[in-house]
Write a structure and sequence with these properties.
Elements: E1 3-16, E2 19-32, E3 36-41, H1 47-54, E4 67-70, E5 73-74, H2 80-90, E6 91-94, H3 106-116, H4 123-129, H5 145-157, E7 163-167, H6 175-192, E8 195-199, E9 211-216, E10 219-225
């Protein structure tokens, strides 16, 4: 499989007053097209920082040896407006909180997502992929947490993103609901070949991935290849 993303020697320093601290320290990583990458690690280890840099929400420290290549294009050199356009068209985001539009129903929320991309999509079939076919007309307050998270997955999928960034997607959910949400992500990966990058505190979730990296103090401290993905319903929780 070819790499969709190649990260080379990226560092991110945050300044508190005049003192820089490295939230990310010279990280390199390749991500294959269609891969499920799971990022584990202690709080403060740099997981969210890595997601924010790779998804272009934040900028890496300037260094001639640093690169973030998407299919050989270096997005770390993009201007803000070019990056915004790239992100809007190509990348999907799932967070611990759902950020859905309360005054729109399920179908309409997903339709808004599809309008961000430029590809023709069948909104009904995407809603079916996340298992919400019978809930299409419901408003957000009529849905459980897990159902709302699946709406946010459907909304992100509706632009057919190349890569979906998921920061603690099951962080607010119990085991049963969390597993259903992971099932929807895996289903999307199978059906649309969407590359998934999932950050989690839950080591059980690592088993659904093809590759697991562990982060600590801004570095990748372990990289594990998982030859056989485990079905989300069979993973240990917590
Ligand atoms: N905007 C910021 N300004 C200053 N320091 C920051 C900022 N954002 C993050 N940091 C620091 O960078 C380090 C990495 O933070 P990051 O949010 O990437 O950790 P994380 O692995 O996602 O943690 P968690 O599991 O708690 O979400 C932490 O020490 C944090 O305090
Ligand atoms: Mg985080």
């Amino acid at each position: 499989m070819e790499n969709i993303i190649e990260i080379k020697n990226i560092t991110k320093s945050y300044y508190v007053g005049k003192v820089p601290t490295k939230a990310l320290d010279n990280v390199s990583l390749n991500i294959k097209k269609g891969e499920i990458l799971v990022i584990l690690g202690a709080s403060g280890g740099g997981k969210t920082t890595l997601l924010n840099l790779v998804s272009g929400l934040d900028k890496i420290d300037k260094n001639k040896n640093s690169k973030i290549l998407y299919e050989n294009k270096d997005i770390s050199k993009y201007s803000d407006s070019k990056m915004t356009k790239f992100r809007k068209r190509n990348l999907g985001f799932i967070f611990q909180t759902y950020n859905l539009l309360e005054h729109l129903n399920v179908y309409e929320n997903v339709l808004v997502g599809s309008s961000l991309g430029r590809k023709k999509v069948d909104v009904h079939s995407i809603i079916e992929t996340v298992g919400l076919k019978q809930h299409e007309k419901k408003y957000m307050h009529q849905l459980s947490g897990g159902e709302q998270q699946r709406v946010s997955i459907a909304r992100a999928l509706a632009k057919k993103p190349k890569v979906m960034f998921c920061d603690e997607p099951t962080g607010a959910l119990d085991e049963k609901t969390g597993k259903v949400v992971l099932q929807s992500l895996v289903e999307a990966n199978n059906k649309y070949d969407t590359t998934l990058i999932i950050v989690t505190h839950n080591p059980g979730i690592a088993l659904i991935g093809d590759k697991i990296i562990k982060m600590n103090s801004g570095k990748i401290v372990d990289e594990i290849i998982n030859e056989k993905r485990t079905d989300p319903k069979d993973i240990p929780w917590g």
